[in-house]
Amino acid sequence: MGKSVYKVRPNDYWRIGEHENWFEEMAAAGLHLKKLGRMFISFKKGEPKQMKYRIDISIDRKISDDQLEMYAESGWDYVTRDKFFYVFSSPVEVNAPELHTDSAEQSYTIEKLDNKLAGNAFFTGVATILMIGMLSAIWFLEGTPIYVLIEGWAIQQTILAAFIGYTAYTSLRASFSIRTLRKNLMEGKPINRHATWKSSDRLRSAFVVVFTIIIGLSAVIPIVQLVKNTTETLPEENIDLPIVRLADIERNPDLIRDELGYMDDGVDWGNRYTFKWGPFAPVQYETDEGGLVPGKMWSDGSGRYSPSVHTKVYQLTIPTMADSLIADLVKWYQFDENKEDYVEMNHPNLDRLIVYEEADMKKIFASKGKGVIFVRYYGDADTNTIVDEIEKKIMLISGSENISENEDK
């Protein structure tokens, strides 16, 4: 025997006759079955030989040495196994008798497999329905699927749900196929050992392998997010980040920082910036900043003047997603306001600009190229001042430049 050769394993593992025929075709081509894996089947190169292969099922226990010895005496050599499927081979010239000569009796060997597959189909089906319900709430409850996609909250879970859904589908097919096989055996109809694999079957199996690899790669997404996502206290001085600062909006030399925010792990969450990464927006910033102007009161006399600003910044991987993200951000931050109060305005240097104003609170949504910025501001600065600052910052992320967290520091 020579070196090993690996073939994609057909994912329809319950198709016993097709597997047996395929192994025989491989042996005739000089590839002899060596081992069954979850995704691949390994063969060893050797001389072409006419072989017969048979698959036996034992779901409760491992086939005993006595039974293996009995099979060997009948001309059947044990080759390999996968869970409850045991594969035996025999040269054609030996003319070995069948492992099971009575089809009706053989049907009882797969009764428990039939029940097990039915149970698997039920539980994976229920799991799929529950995950679809949960993910539907995440993606569509607020009507902001693009915002959810950009933030990257549920990408990995959605891919995993798709995999579980496909598993439920294959489990259901397996259950029906084994039940049909069992019924045929009980009626005295033997397994069709001349059935062959269609090219579409092998393409579907290859798809499952590729999809499984994608599942594995998707598991990297939350790890990268965990590693790259950081939160730090905003320095009082200006830093080279594409975020709108409170001092730039207020333009008041008497402005000081309001340091009465929540402190945790050395971070002032009232004056912080968070860098986040996602596959559809590799550069994301979220900031909060609060200030005070000594001696100044709110215009309605409600207390000392304490302006604040909250910003969200995105540099998108796909610029055409900007309009949809703007629409979803408006929905996300709309709260109880009337939709008509969110006014779309023309701006010569911005692709899109939406403004909401109410007393001392303003919300501004802007996009240019692959850059999107949202600003929510409490204070008495006018809207044009905020838009001017957004215009300056969005230029840093609207083109092909990539701003990394490390470079910014």
Automatic annotation (TrEMBL):
Keyword Membrane: yes
Origin superkingdom: Bacteria
Segments passing through the bilayer: 121-141, 153-172, 206-227
InterPro entries per UniProt: DUF2812
UniProt KW keywords: Membrane, Transmembrane, Transmembrane helix
Pfam families: DUF2812 (PF11193)
Protein name as it appears in the record: DUF2812 domain-containing protein
Organism: Sporosarcina thermotolerans
